[in-house]
Design brief:
The chain has 134 residues and is an alpha+beta fold. The protein has one domain. It contains two helices and eight strands. The chain has a six-stranded antiparallel sheet with strand order 1-2-3-4-7-8, covered by helices on one side. It has a two-stranded antiparallel ribbon with strand order 5-6.
C-alpha cells in the first residue's frame, strides 16, 4: 500500500466533530463566570453550558460589538466524583488532559487549538485566553 493511500484513509477515518449544541443527552445551560481564574470584567458573565453525560465538553458563548454570538467548545474528559462536595458537584475534570478547542463559524464547528492543561486553573486561563482572543 502506498503512503499516500494510508494518509488519505487516516485523514477520513477521524471522528466526526459533534454538533455540540444538540448531541448532548443532558446539556446544562447557565450564565456565569469562568472558574479557575480571578474574577474580572473579562471573566464574567458569559452564557455557558456543559455536557458530561454521553459527551464531555464545556461551551462558552461570547458577543462582539456587533452583537454577533460566537460559541467555543472545550472538549476535556470528565468523571463522576468519588466524594461530591455538594449537589452541584456532578463531575470532575481529568488532569492532565489535552483540551480540544472548537469555534463555531458560519454554522460549522472548526478545531482551532489543542492544548495540554495540568490543572483547573490552567483550564480557566485557557478558556479566558480563548474567548478574549488573547
Amino acid at each position: 500500500m502506498s503512503n499516500i493511500f494510508i494518509f488519505i484513509v487516516l485523514l477520513f477515518a477521524q471522528e466526526p466533530t459533534p454538533s455540540f449544541e444538540s448531541d448532548c443527552d443532558d446539556l446544562s445551560i447557565w450564565e456565569g463566570g469562568i472558574q479557575g481564574v480571578e474574577r474580572s470584567k473579562k471573566s464574567y458573565p458569559y452564557k455557558m453550558a456543559e455536557c458530561h453525560s454521553n459527551l464531555h465538553y464545556d461551551l462558552i458563548w461570547t458577543k462582539s460589538e456587533t452583537e454577533q454570538q460566537t460559541c467555543f467548545a472545550f472538549v476535556i474528559p470528565k468523571v463522576e466524583p468519588t466524594e461530591p462536595e455538594n449537589e452541584f458537584d456532578v463531575y470532575d475534570y481529568v488532569f492532565p488532559s489535552d483540551v480540544k478547542i472548537y469555534e463555531k463559524n458560519a454554522g460549522t464547528w472548526q478545531l482551532i487549538n489543542t492544548e495540554r492543561v495540568e490543572s483547573f486553573e490552567q483550564l480557566g486561563e485557557l478558556k479566558l485566553r480563548t474567548v478574549t482572543k488573547k
